[in-house]
Design goal:
The chain has a single domain, classed as TIM Barrel (Alpha-Beta Barrel). It is of the alpha/beta class. The two termini are 26 Å apart. Helix content is 46%, strand content 12%. It has an 8-stranded parallel beta sheet with strand order 7-6-5-4-3-2-1-8. The chain is built from 13 helices and 8 strands. The structure holds pyridoxal-5'-phosphate (PLP). Pyridoxal-5'-phosphate binds next to helix 6.
């Protein structure tokens, strides 16, 4: 529970992907609650191909020295030693991320063995609860990273919400045997299914991620019940990054006030947005990597 405290403090905030000290400073000035350091933005990972690994430790440390907000960094799925190196670097949170090339196609990191909190992506309630049982302190949607297309993130959060409603109604009906059935289907313990059904929400903070490019995208995901926003390629791939970063923070904070979201949307120029990719024609679907879902 100590590990989860940090994730709660990020609620209603925007975490921005950065690759340089300059970008991290722009993110901090724009009001990001945290920055996520990676070697390449997800859209550039797509272009570059090859193996995507954790970022240079020197860059992570330079960024930690130049901003006062918490610093996160990504490690490959299942790569225990990248995670341990990031923990030794004293980052505030580790993202075990499908944006990087998975190191183990069958196993995620057993996160209870780390003292640094870890965030994981999920496309469904089952996937989210498997990660929480492994020790994830925070969940985010996977979406389809690096596309500038928010459609997959919307699909993932709506699916999780539908599944939460379903298990909540099973719980309310008192049908324990049906919760046992769900736990077998989800491949998680009965205890975590019961706890989640009783809460009617994930037992950890749940953020949106994957394809968010505009203030309106952020506001929409907040309206679907997300606890906060991760923006990957959407800011520093746009040609109006400082303004857009501020606008996305504004829209995330005031997502339920349409005049504020309009004000935020007016701060950006659609001609400066990242061009984006159609999810249907992608060669690499990061969300599916190694995934048996
Ligand atoms: N997502 C990604 C990116 C994966 O690499 C994997 C593989 O383990 C999974 C999901 C599936 O994991 P699980 O079936 O344990 O949820």
């Amino acid at each position: 529970t100590l590990k989860r405290g940090f994730a709660h403090m990020l609620k209603n905030g925007v975490v921005m992907d950065v690759t340089t000290v300059e970008q991290a400073q722009i993110a901090e000035e724009a009001g990001a609650v945290s920055v996520m350091v990676l070697d390449k933005l997800p859209s550039d990972v797509r272009k570059a191909g090859g193996v995507a690994r954790t970022a240079s430790i020197r860059i992570i440390e330079d960024i930690m020295d130049s901003v006062t907000i918490p610093v996160m960094a990504k490690c490959r799925i299942g790569h225990v030693n990248e995670a341990l190196v990031l923990q030794e670097t004293d980052v505030d949170m580790i993202d075990e991320s499908e944006v990087l090339t998975p190191a183990d196609e069958l196993r995620h990191i057993w996160k209870w063995d780390l003292t640094t909190p870890v965030v994981n992506g999920a496309r469904s309630l089952a996937e989210a609860l498997r990660r929480v049982e492994e020790g994830a302190a925070m969940i985010r949607t996977k979406g389809e990273p690096g596309t500038g297309n928010v459609a997959e993130a919307i699909t993932h959060i709506k699916k999780v919400n539908d599944e939460l409603r379903a298990i909540k109604s099973i719980y309310d009906s008192g049908d324990n045997q049906d919760l046992v059935r769900m736990s077998r289907e989800f491949k998680v313990s009965y205890d975590i299914v019961e706890q989640t059904a009783k809460l009617g929400r994930l037992p950890v903070v749940n953020f949106a991620a994957g394809g968010i490019a505009t203030p309106a995208d952020a506001a929409y995901l907040m309206s679907l019940g997300c606890d906060g926003i991760f923006v990957g390629s959407g800011i520093f791939n746009a040609n109006d990054a400082p303004e857009r970063a501020r606008a996305i923070v504004l829209a995330t904070t005031f997502w339920d006030e349409t005049d504020k979201v309009k004000e935020a949307q007016k701060m950006i120029d659609e001609r400066q947005s990242m061009l984006g990719l159609d999810v249907k024609t992608l060669e690499l679907r990061m969300q599916d990597r190694g995934g048996s879902a």
